[in-house]
């Protein structure tokens, strides 16, 4: 099986059957569609949990993603000019969706507290900075990060947290009446959760080498997610009053296994290794929602609406560390030092880039909503009744 | 790559590998499933925006589509008898879903004002007339319409509008208390919007020639939709009070780019050409919802519940015109005159066929709901509470 | 086309093109994803119809399924050890989802009346017993059951009914205020219905022989489901007051055609044969909901919350009988006697296994909810407002 040209295209069949194009187009199109569903349905509905912010969650998600993928294709195309031209392929469309994911993760941190214009500015800047870090990690450091625990999840989370810190609103310290869910908004959010959960194996395998590596990325992610569900439910029940489950944990922490296994997804860690990663991620994420998010808000001034630190931040770092260990143990070719450098680079670009972006977003002419109109669709949408 | 037999089946691999069947079956099955999701989830939930008509929207959508695809396969089979038999293939199942789409578009125009029996009659007649026009356009005029801007979208919309004109209800001129949305019904509708948006590239490429043409149909549609989202949001904000967004525009106009790029989808118009088409479609569609729909209702007696004129009608015509221009510019083999004839044929069959169908539907024994029970599930469904 | 190794893997292309792995991985991955959507979205949301039990429906569905697929892979792996090891493949992951389906069907029978711990115990036992029966049917009796009418649907339903009988609650005989739907909960349930309906062809064809048999399984299921929708709507309208439709029938009975055609899906029964099976299944299922479910509850003490007897039980038996007839008529190689034995085995293991499991679940230390807290999320979940 000889890759030719763009990754994901093979000439083996071309020579012998003359029908490679349609077959390979196939495979990537399927993975692209799954990733696309995660971006537009998954992220969009996951954020509809707020009682009065559903229009913005799914609507601004659509706007930002449609803008981000065009900008992402452009930035990516400029990095990889082909005879002076930007060429498009399904593979590049997958990568554009990936860069979009970082923006949507950061969106979760500032959900309900920013205007559409602020978010479009964040998109422009974040995707540009993502492009620089991604180039550094993949091309210079040559680190492994097939499922992008570091360059998407950790990057997007800490970028968003840095923005949130810059946009700190002391008046929201005592909570806001709309910063919560109602029964049906929690059910809408579960649409997002379940689609993300189901298609995560496609996300982590989409840019893996076709064949055994890609198959492994699918199965490792599948096992990690399955184990993560069990630990997230168990811990949620343990930390809540009377052993009850909390919807916030179920909506989010059940997905941490997909994040955390990302870097190692195409490494030979075995089903058991994947399950350990997922199991730990479920615990860390649930505990983060319960204990860490309130501390970040009250002590550090980081108001993380969706708790992206628990779903993408800590599990992303966990994934980066797992990658360092796995490479050190020889589960994949590479250098543990370069893996560590990739993690540091992703965190550094995220925090510095996010802080700078937050400062720009804080300029007073972008229409940032006043405190009392936070978490409320009616400031940006015509809301009937 | 030599097509053999039915479009979409190849013998290149059969000869050399002996495994063509399963591979090609594959590719078409994937596209079929995406189109199927658009028909049943996309159209079904898009229409749930009405506050008290969700059961009928998604429920009658299922009934009509299940009936339409059987009738569509039959009509299609009678046109293309194979040794005196009707043969079934995934390709024909895709075409049956396509003919079903016309019915569901027309359903949108009369949503809330017709009985199930009336709708089944409309299905019978519309699919038959669709079959005649489709045969004329594809076989006689040999026009290009891979994504069916003309033969599905424009046809379905103007057919439905002609029916709506025949079924004009003066008493609804001042509005109806149930002809509107509530918060959660608008969120259900977004499920439909987003699934339609994500899978539209599959719709426009499903019957394209596999290989480069099909890949182009995917990417052109992808670019058109992305650009359309931006113009729909921008125009919605410009025309609404205080720069707010209107959910009706977001639910519908963001999809106009998929409609309008249909005819040109497999033509060599380039990403930039596709984006221009999508951008214009988003503007035209949003302006139509804001300014044209009220005029159609009050001046012409055309009460278009879902605004299909704005989502499918005008963007469909735009797509037909773009096809004429693109063929004239040599972006695809064909004749600009034949493209124009195909557009005229589609509009003519739609308006005449729709008017005749509307007259038949107006006969007094089909159980048409009285004015005061319009837009209300409880006339056809057991509604608890 | 020569299968090699695990079912679903071919060496034809390996020899000639060297690229079989990625192609075949493709095909199975696509079918796996469709089945996965049925398990997590389909079953999960189908059960959200209860007004106050949506968190548990979709949330416990996720927990049980994530647990069941791991346990199912383990049980399956122990039956089919490969050099002393349990090997994983996409094919085995599909089978794990299949064994999970039995648990989710049984979950429907006891929905709202059991604790998470009781359900986890049921999962452990049911998958083990499923594994025994599946081995008997497939390996010893060598019966056909490609879409698993008998070994999944009938088995899961009668297992759940036997459990429900053991857990009979006389106090619920007069109904419970939360044992019903509200408007929006019925719409959430339709998300489940429609995804199940659309992807059922993939379910019934996932483990068929690739090529003509698999294509036939897709088309037969497609025809059966389309016919079933028509009969379900017709009968629902006939048996309800004033010709109205009942959402319970539409949500469930429209799917009975997928169940009933399962055993015959890859047999040469023709589109017309498939449609007859689906048509009859829609009638039987709707009548069951209307007339049989109340009798089972009042006379036999079987309180079947979701009516799984009507969606999976009777249509599953119908599918088993159709399989006997089809094999007797030579539509597929096999023995009608062995088909009958397979049906009897599935029912026997289900009833005996379910009764035993129910007795164990009845032990007083699993946290079974008291009568007044049945069908209520707030006993296991933090519910805001």
UniProtKB/TrEMBL annotation, chains A, B, C:
Q: Where in the cell does this protein reside?
A: Cell membrane
User: Can you say what this protein is called?
Assistant: Ammonium transporter Rh type A
Q: Which SUPFAM superfamilies match?
A: Ammonium transporter
* The gene coding this protein: RHAG
Give the stretches traversing the membrane: 30-50, 62-81, 93-112, 119-138, 150-168, 180-200, 220-239, 272-292, 312-329, 341-361
Q: Which UniProt keywords apply?
A: Ammonia transport, Cell membrane, Glycoprotein, Membrane, Transmembrane, Transmembrane helix, Transport
What Gene3D superfamilies does the entry give?
Answer: Ammonium transporter AmtB like domains
Q: Which residues form the Ammonium transporter AmtB-like domain?
A: 23-377
Record's family? Belongs to the ammonium transporter (TC 2.A.49) family. Rh subfamily.
Biological source species: Oncorhynchus tshawytscha
Topology relative to the membrane, per the entry? Multi-pass membrane protein
Q: Spell out the subunit comment.
A: Homodimer. Heterotrimer; a RHCE monomer interacts with a RHAG homodimer. Component of the ankyrin-1 complex in the erythrocyte, composed of ANK1, RHCE, RHAG, SLC4A1, EPB42, GYPA, GYPB and AQP1. Interacts with GYPB (via the N-terminal); this interaction bridges the (RHAG)2(RHCE) heterotrimer with the SLC4A1 Band 3 I dimer complexed with GYPA.
Record-linked InterPro entries: Ammonium/urea_transptr, NH4_transpt_AmtB-like_dom, RhesusRHD
Q: Which GO terms describe its biological process?
A: ammonium homeostasis
Q: What domain of life is recorded for the organism?
A: Eukaryota
- Which GO molecular function, any one, fits this protein according to its record? ammonium channel activity
Answer yes or no on keyword Glycoprotein. Answer: yes
Q: Which reaction does it catalyse?
A: CO2(out) = CO2(in); NH4(+)(in) = NH4(+)(out); methylamine(out) = methylamine(in)
Q: Name one GO cellular component term.
A: plasma membrane
State the Pfam families in the record.
Ammonium_transp (PF00909)
């Amino acid at each position: 099986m000889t890759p030719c040209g763009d990754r994901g295209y093979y000439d083996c069949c071309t020579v012998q059957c003359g029908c490679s194009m349609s077959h390979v187009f196939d495979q990537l199109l399927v993975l692209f569609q799954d990733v696309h569903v995660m971006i537009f349905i998954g992220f969009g509905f996951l954020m509809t949990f707020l009682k009065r912010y559903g229009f913005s969650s799914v609507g601004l998600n659509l706007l930002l993603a449609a803008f981000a993928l065009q900008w992402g294709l452009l930035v990516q195309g400029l990095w990889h000019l082909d005879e002076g031209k930007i060429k498009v392929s399904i593979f590049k469309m997958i990568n554009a969706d990936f860069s979009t994911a970082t923006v949507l993760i950061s969106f979760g941190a500032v959900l309900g507290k920013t205007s559409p214009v602020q978010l479009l500015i964040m998109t422009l800047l974040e995707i540009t900075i993502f492009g620089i870090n991604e180039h550094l990690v993949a091309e210079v450091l040559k680190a492994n990060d097939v499922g992008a625990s570091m360059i998407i999840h950790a990057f997007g989370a800490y970028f968003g947290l840095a923005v949130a810190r810059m946009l700190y609103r002391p008046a929201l310290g005592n909570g806001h009446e709309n910063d919560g869910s109602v029964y049906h908004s929690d059910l809408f959010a579960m649409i997002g959760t379940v689609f993300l959960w189901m298609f995560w194996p496609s996300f982590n395998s989409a840019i893996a080498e076709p064949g055994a590596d890609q198959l492994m990325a699918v199965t490792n992610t599948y096992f990690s997610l399955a184990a993560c569900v069990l630990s997230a439910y168990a811990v949620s029940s343990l930390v809540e009053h009377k052993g009850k489950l909390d919807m916030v944990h179920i909506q989010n922490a059940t997905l941490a296994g997909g994040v955390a296994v990302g870097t190692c997804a195409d490494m030979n860690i075995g089903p058991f290794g994947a399950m350990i990663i997922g199991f730990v991620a479920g615990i860390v994420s649930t505990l983060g929602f319960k204990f860490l998010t309130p501390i970040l808000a009250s002590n550090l001034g980081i108001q993380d609406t969706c708790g992206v630190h628990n779903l993408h931040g800590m599990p992303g770092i966990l994934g980066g560390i797992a990658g360092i260990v796995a490479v050190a143990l020889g589960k994949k070719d590479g250098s543990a030092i370069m893996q560590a450098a990739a993690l540091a680079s992703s965190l550094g670009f995220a925090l510095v880039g996010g802080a700078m972006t937050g400062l720009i977003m804080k300029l007073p002419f972008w229409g940032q909503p006043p405190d009392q109109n936070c978490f409320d669709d009616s400031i940006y949408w015509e809301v009937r009744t």
